[in-house]
Each structure stands twice: as C-alpha cells, then as structure tokens.
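Deliverable D2.4 — example input (structure tokens):
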C-alpha cells in the first residue's frame, strides 16, 4: 500500500529538521561540517531555495527555508543523499547516515517565523555549547548580525520579519528579539513541543490540508485531484495514457523512445506518487541506481525545458483524471 503523500505548498516557508542515526556526533568533524554546508549551498542554488535560518549541530540540523517550484522532498533528498554518500565514502562506511526521513512543518505566520528564527539560531545555547549564539560558527546567526558575510542566508528575507526599511534597524530588532527569546527560555523545549510542531497529527505531516486551500502534494498537483494508486494500477494507467506497454519498458530494448517512456514512468511513480524507487526498478527490471539517475535527469530537463515539464504534466493529468476501472461480472 503506498504511503500517504506528504503535502507541499509551493513558495511556502518550512522548518526542516533531521537527526543522524544513533545520535552519532558526525558533524564534530570539521570536514563533515564543511561538506554539509557546501551541499546546502549547492542545493539552494540549484533549486532556488531561500534560507532564512540554519544551524548544524553535532548530530542534527535545522533549516528554515522557502521553496520555489522544486518540491521540498526533492531538495532534501539531494541534500541528505549527497551528504551521506560523501561521509560514507570518506570513512569507508556502508548503510544509512540519517535516522529517518526529514521532518518539516510549514511556517504560516510572522509570529511563528520570528520564533523559529530565534529557536534555530539559539540551538547551541540550549545545548550548553555556548552562552552567546554569535560564538557558534555553524549557524546563520553570525551572518544575520553582520559578523560574517552572508553565504547561506537570505538576509533580506530574514530582516523583513522585523518591519523596518532600514537594514541596521531591522538587524538591531532581530538581535533584541533573540535576546528576549533567550531570556524566556522556551527555546530549550524539545522540537515536538514547539507550537508549529505540536499541531501536527503525526510525525510525517508537513501541513494540515484543511488549513491551506492551496495545499499540494510534492509535485504541484492539487491534493483533491490526486488518487492513491498502487504501482500496478499506476502502471496500467500509464500504458493507456502514454501508449507504451509495460512489457516493452521492462525489456532489454535500447530504443531511445523506450528510454523516454521508462523515465516518464519513473517520474510519475516515484517523483509524483511517492512510490519507492526500488519497487519501480523491480517493475521495470532495471537497476535501482539507473532509476535514480533517470529521476535526476528528468528533474534537470524539467528545470530547463518547459515543454518537457508540460509533457510530464499532461501525462499526469490524464492518469489522474481516469476514474476507477469498472469490473464486469
């Protein structure tokens, strides 16, 4: 049974969080910390993200970011996947680096936005590492206060929350706000107790569909229009929508048009319906690594070729619009 899709609002701001498996202090190592930060910057630039706050602790990270058109899950998969592969390669490890799927909550008010900025940048203070966030180098606080030049932060976006057209006045207001929050001590609460997390119905929930009229699944499809499909039913609908037969897609034929069909099937199954890459690979009788590369290739082409994106969207709409098959008795 396919897992319930996580929801996405294009252009929304999210608090994203994930821990290292077994709580290991991976990012105590300056090389690993630098690799993480460099990868965040790379993903930010590639996917058009705006980052308003960030903090890398020894065994977890926090990001406050705004998405563009690229789904949040895709950006986070790139980030965590590349960091994990680099870490494992450098240390000769196998297996996963991260404890679980990332967790995220939408930030839908300026009140929560200001609070999450302070919460993220005060993380090392709450952990007892420093008594002043300006003394912690692995967060965006020093960028925000002008101690170092911005290299991850969208400084204008952060300062806009403090209602001043004068940058220095907005920066002073931010500094005062962080000081106030630090004195209130609520920032020491666990993440599940934060108000924008506490309202979640379950750990994987990102946004309450009832509270946002423009809520979408992680592909730009309206939530109410997307059916829950298993892989077999999706493949059946794909055959009718695309004209490709599954037997041909799963064959060893090297026809370029078949490759296009395989890529389209992969994008719809994994990228849009949240089905597992390994299951798609098994259905198409291909290596999971090959299927993952197809996803990356399709994502790159979609970002530079609007006609290719429209082709995928048209296939998706045809599949989505098809009602359940009637059983003739």
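Example output (designed residues):
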């Amino acid at each position: 049974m396919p897992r319930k899709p996580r929801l996405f609002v294009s252009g929304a701001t999210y608090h994203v969080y994930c821990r290292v498996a077994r709580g290991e202090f991976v990012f105590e190592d300056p090389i690993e910390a630098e690799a993480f930060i460099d990868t965040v910057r790379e993903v930010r630039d590639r996917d058009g993200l705006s980052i308003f706050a960030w903090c890398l602790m020894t065994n977890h990270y926090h990001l406050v970011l705004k998405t563009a058109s690229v789904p949040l899950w895709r950006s986070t998969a790139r980030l965590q996947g590349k960091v994990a592969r680099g870490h494992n390669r450098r240390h000769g490890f196998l297996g996963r680096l991260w404890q679980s799927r990332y967790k995220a909550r939408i930030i839908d008010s300026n009140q929560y936005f200001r609070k999450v900025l302070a919460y993220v940048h005060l993380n090392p203070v709450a952990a007892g590492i420093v008594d002043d966030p300006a003394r912690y180098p692995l967060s965006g606080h020093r960028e925000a206060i002008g101690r170092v030049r911005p290299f991850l932060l969208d400084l204008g976006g952060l300062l806009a929350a403090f209602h001043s057209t004068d940058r220095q006045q907005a920066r002073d207001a931010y500094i005062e706000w962080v000081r106030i929050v630090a004195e209130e001590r609520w920032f020491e609460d666990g993440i599940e107790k934060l108000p924008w997390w506490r309202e979640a119905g379950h750990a994987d929930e990102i946004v309450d569909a009832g509270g946002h009229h423009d809520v979408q699944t992680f592909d730009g499809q309206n939530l109410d229009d997307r059916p829950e499909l298993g892989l077999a039913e999706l493949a059946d609908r794909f055959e009718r929508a695309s004209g490709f037969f599954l037997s041909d897609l799963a064959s060893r034929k090297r026809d370029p048009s078949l490759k296009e069909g395989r890529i389209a099937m992969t994008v719809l199954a994994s990228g849009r319906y949240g089905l597992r890459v390994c299951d798609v690979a098994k259905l198409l009788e291909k290596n999971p690594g090959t299927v993952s590369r197809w996803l990356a290739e399709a994502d790159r082409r979609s970002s530079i070729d609007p006609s290719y994106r429209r082709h995928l969207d048209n296939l998706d709409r045809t599949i989505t619009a098809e009602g359940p098959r009637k059983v003739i008795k």
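The mean pLDDT is 83.
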